[in-house]
């Protein structure tokens, strides 16, 4: 694979900044995973939400937004699609200002049916990396997140 024309000859320039490179890689990865997940009827973003709810269980929109680093408006818009499909349900919380969500039975089943498609895509991407590289990359991504916390 060749490097982008924008970044190949422009190291340490705005078109080669960390944000640009991460967003470019994320868009390509999202398209790849969207294609892989297509047989499940889910998009990558929807699968990620179902996966998070599978791990977290019933949770508030605010906590889910924070966990996924997604603004509340975008999260609510994406959740509403899943609610309309019957994959996620809204649950009344003790505090009327808080809205909780959780997977429905159909949501759990849909998620579990999609996992093999995700796993195949994940294995494909991981095979392209040198052994143990993903572990190091995850640590570096965590460092980037930590450096950017509170950075606007």
CATH topology: Arc Repressor Mutant, subunit A
Order of helices and strands: HHHEHHEEHH
Question: Which ranges are low-confidence, i.e. pLDDT below 50, for 5 or more consecutive residues?
Answer: none
Write the CATH homologous superfamily: Winged helix-like DNA-binding domain superfamily/Winged helix DNA-binding domain
> What general outline do the C-alpha atoms trace?
globular
Number of strands: 3
Just name the CATH architecture.
Orthogonal Bundle
The helix tally amounts to 7
Description of the structure:
The chain is mainly alpha-helical. The chain has one domain: Orthogonal Bundle (Arc Repressor Mutant, subunit A). The chain contains seven helices and three strands. It has a three-stranded antiparallel sheet. It starts with a helix and ends with a helix. The mean pLDDT is 89.
What's the short story on this structure?
With 152 residues, the chain is mainly alpha-helical. It contains seven helices and three strands. The longest helix is centred in the C-terminal third of the chain and has 23 residues, at 105-127.
